[in-house]
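Mods, move this if it's the wrong board.
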Amino acid sequence: MTSLHTDVGMVRAVRLSGPGHEYLIDDEPVDVLIADGRIADIAPTGALPPAGDVLEAGGTWAVPGLWDNHVHTVQWALAAEREPLGDTRSAAEAAARMSTVGTLPDGRRIGTGYRDALWPDRPTLAGLDAATGDVPTYLINADVHSVWLNSAALRRESFSTTDGVLREENAFEISRRLNAVDPVHSDRAVLQAGEQAATRGVTGLVDFDMAWNADAWARRIAAGFSAHRVEFAVYPFDLAHAIEAGLRTGELLDGVDAAAAGRGLVTVGPLKVISDGSLGTRTAACTHAYPGDPYNFGVMTVPRDELIALLTTATGAGLGVAVHAIGDRAVTSALDAFAVSGAAGTVEHAQLIRHADLARFARLGVIASVQPQHALDDRDLAGHLWEGQDSLGYPLASLLSAGAEMRFGSDAPVTPLDPWQAIAAAVARTDDVREPWHPEERMTFDQALAASVRTSLRPGEPADIAICTGDPRVATGEQLREMTVSATVLAGRITHLA
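Not the wrong board. Structure tokens:
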């Protein structure tokens, strides 16, 4: 009988529903033979002798293990300890909510996930002070590009601002400080969050924590973390450190025993560069100004020449790059930098794209790493703040039609770390009773799944498998969101078993 953390030699009687099923002549159950963490063979059920422990699938459906290609791991893991503010409808309501929140062991109150762009009132320092008094209180915007602090928090952090709101780099600095908890505490939270991700079929993620992640992941693997694969990013402030340490994208992390401890789980990811702001903070760099603010076209936080220099340095050192670019001006600048530097990697978010830039993704070999759920969470916001823009908002099908390679993520904790949610958002383009938003940008299930996996169900591939109780190929958007994962297998080892 199989159990959690068992190494299995066979998944018996499973139907393949994803890359690899096209090689089968029908949808009848098959047995998947596993050896040394890889798929060794696939044959009709009963044709192969079992080898080792057997995971009985009972005729359910399998897809390759799912990836979330954009996660802020520690912030995502710690979000469970913070007050959720996504349902607040005004600054006054959010401030009042924080007045009742208990303090964390470090004496802070922290709330997260508010969206102020459509509030009828604005965040103010006086309003937050009146509600929260002398307890250091921090509210993190859902997009993480702005934070709202009371006077006690501003004093504690040695910042000052007239409205209590810090934006962009100052906001990121506050988040870094809030995330810099005791490593024992944060590692425990990451372990628990990883186990939760495995229940959704996740076998890999890209970690964009704003920290030196090499030491953190070596420490976690040494402590027994084995829930999923990890590619970790570095940031420009650590670029020299990364080069000196010899980090190269795609290589296993040094100091981790891949066979005994990490099983090849942790690899070096890209250099992450944040080149503009966000929609919610009204700082995404756009061609046209934001409504009611004729001089606000967003901000290019990394000028074009500096971006080219960063990408050139990273490429010369063997590092791929991931460029955060949300507004259309930023996306154009990012693609220009890829073209000049010859860098390889991704544009992260790409929420507003000029028509002429669609084909440049494919021509330059740049991957569009997007978060489909953002389109649904932001549809009202985009309808208001980007109503005067001429570029395409949250394009998916248009990018595919232009030949771009795509990867999906969540930007957790901005949205939940759940690839099924991303797949559903791409397929249905709605998550409520409203009609699909820009239905011309919908994708098929097969297209959405391809953007959510790194492997296939074919012999020779890693045995990273998610087993589902329903057939996702025929599921509605709502059914995809609620898809039950009965088991998750990572390199032949069970990481989740319902």
